[in-house]
Amino acid sequence: MALTNLKRLLVANRGEIACRVMNSARALGLDTVAVHSEADARAKHVKYADEAVQVGSGSAATTSYLDADAVLEAARATGADCIHPGYGFLSENAAFARRCAEAGITFVGPPAAAIDAMGDKVESKRIAEAAGVSVIPGFNGVVESAEHAVAVAEDIGYPVMLKASAGGGGKGMRVARDAREVAECFALATDEAKKSFGDDRLLVEKFVAAPRHVEIQLVADAHGNVACFPERECSVQRRNQKVVEEAPSPFVHQRPELRARMQAEAAQLATAVGYTSAGTVEMLVDATTADFYFLEMNTRLQVEHPVTEAVSDQDLVALMLRVADGQALPSELVGSVPPVGWAIESRIYAEDAARGFVPSTGSLTAYANPPASIEFFHASDVRVDAAVEDGSEVGIFYDPMISKVITRGEDRAAALDAQRRALDAYVVEGLVHNVPFCRDVCSHEAFLSGDYTTAFIEEHYPGGFDEGSVLTNMAPQDLAKLACLVLGVDAASKEVRGELQPAGPQVVLLRTARADAELVFEVDGFDGAYTVRYEGEEHQIELDKAAWAAPLATPLVLNDGAVACQYVSTDARPGFDHALRVRGVRVDAAVRTPQTHALSKHMKPAAAEAAAAGLACPMPGTLLRFEAEVGATVEAGEPLAVVEAMKMQNVLRAEARVVVDELLADVGDVVAADQMLMTFVVSD
């Protein structure tokens, strides 16, 4: 059924979600309007819309996408009769929803009163409890000071979670395990909450030790109908922000009665607040007892909504637009919608998983979606939601998300297999990103088992993601195939340059570009049949020459699908000839004769310049403050400085006992990744 009231939609957002919303709007016959900041003037969502308007001034979100006056003026100037806020920015701003109504513009989202009620975590908890929804034990009110927070925490019992009363997305949330951490986290969380949401109120709750993050997606209409979709599991998180999500939950899927209770309570809450549009009720499920507790209700479309669409065959944005148009939900959706198949989503961020997930910036020098990827699930099991292309910039002003890769299958194993294949073929070059980490998660034994909690990353990657492990953890037979592929690529490149391939066995070297793991293979053979010797074992390998016959600038995938590899370039580290990506990780490769390899062992490497002892900033951002003055002695683990990046405050701590020697930057400076902030002397 076509829309009857809405004609022209302004999308008050940017990036992939803006493009995503426009897709559904166009399918329903709506004209689309994009808004953009100065930095986004040439962004993909701007080009994608029927019309585009710059809002506010400058590039900061506060003076552009968060400028409600400018967004409303853009709607009036372009004749937009409805506004979809996407997620983030103004999506959960009740005052903005009210102003839309006052201006005669339809806000494609819930009523302002519902946003108000659910946006305040203290009030939402009271409402949920009154509606018969299970709530987590905690202090039912706002803590007034660090001392008050400590008293409340000791009354509840450690560990506790301090979190912002307003907002979400992992900002203003800290876990504390003793009184000292409560006091420290109180200062950080209040400051973070104030900057992110304009509201520094905090609440304190019991921190469940073995929690799974499970949420119920719902859509409610103005006719009293509520549709509850299959649950999503979002337990793979860093800094309380989701990285890999799936639907349904492997834990809940084995307990149909648990799903039914969670969906019923979500519907009760929606009814209690007079909710309409799409919303998500987030729950903590105790993995030891299967009890669940209300966390919060997000009064907007979620980042991870595509996995729900994949297992329900529904377009949630289209449903939001139909509800905003005054239509009732289709009768077959009212109540509980069962899952069909399985879906996995990886959020691709410009961040460094090997360095504590610090944000990265830069230009995309090469970008290509996985083959057979689509915008909606119709003829493929791979979907990519993105708003980037070759040359796109990822800067410091906004969230570092590049895209979302969503795959589906008839069961969890099939969806995971599709996800791994998609990530292997996903081309993202020019900056550091988390594709290798997401690929590793989707192969990790604990994740494959389905038995994991929100502590998954903390437990299984305590020192960060080790890129070298990608090679060392591969099966020897697969490594042998990779070595043969490198030999074939090297021969093809020599042929292009008119060079002769040496006769006899060759030595293939592989080394991860950011780690010291180096593997050595002796490969003998030609024309697709090889004998590979590696660590005392011999492997017989047969490969179709078509595996490397394609142009070297395109992803190369072995014909049997067991090992996937992208050829990146010849721009490898000194001593190597080729740069590849294996399971997302940058790998340098070289082919040498046995004689050349033997001689190289006796050559001394260039001496590395000893770096002065000091604190280097691990990410680009703004220096908020130093926590230690010149001459101060700082113990290992204590804070040295605080840097804000991508709206998150990052505490930089001493790795040993040090005495501060010199401060090399000023508070308020915009600092680059690896820029030295201070020098110090390591003290015994």
Topology:
Layout: E1 8-11, H1 15-27, E2 31-36, H2 44-48, E3 51-54, H3 68-78, E4 82-84, H4 94-102, E5 106-107, H5 112-119, H6 121-130, H7 146-156, E6 160-164, E7 173-176, H8 179-197, E8 202-206, E9 211-220, E10 226-228, E11 232-238, E12 241-247, H9 256-272, E13 277-286, E14 292-298, H10 305-312, H11 316-324, E15 335-336, E16 342-349, E17 351-352, E18 358-359, E19 362-363, E20 366-368, E21 373-374, E22 382-386, E23 393-394, E24 401-409, H12 412-424, E25 427-429, H13 435-441, H14 445-449, H15 456-460, H16 468-472, H17 476-497, E26 506-512, E27 518-526, E28 529-534, E29 537-542, E30 555-557, E31 564-569, E32 578-582, E33 585-592, H18 594-600, E34 614-616, E35 621-626, E36 633-634, E37 639-645, E38 648-653, E39 658-663, E40 670-671, E41 676-682
Parallel strand pairs: 1-2, 1-4, 2-3, 4-5, 10-15, 21-22
Antiparallel strand pairs: 6-7, 6-8, 9-10, 9-11, 9-13, 11-12, 12-16, 13-14, 16-24, 17-18, 19-23, 20-25, 22-24, 26-27, 26-33, 27-28, 28-29, 30-31, 31-32, 32-33, 34-41, 35-37, 35-40, 36-39, 37-38, 39-41
Enzyme class: ligase
EC number: 6.4.1.3
Organism: Pelagomonas calceolata
